[in-house]
User: Fold this.
Amino acid sequence: MQAMKSPLSPLDIEVLLHYATAGTPHPRHYCFAVEESTDMWVKCAVLMPAPVTSGMPVTHQYVATSKGRAIVSMLCNIKEPTQVWVDEHGKPIKDNQ
Assistant:
């Protein structure tokens, strides 16, 4: 199993979210960047090929593994960043308003 690249690109996150939620091939599955991202997720055991249904294999269709669902859950629970102004010594500056 391959390690995930770091940092992830916005496209990597979008590809994972698409396959974890849409149930359809990615609309740009034929683009090199999407293929490369999908391949990375498969090699990391985050996505896997969709199961065969009705005896017909589905091409360009993937589903999230339990690891993939855990990553999506983490992404959905990220806290909003905050900004703090500090002085030249690194001490927070209080807003007097």
Notes: The helical segments are 10-21, 32-43, 66-76. The beta strands are 47-49, 62-64.
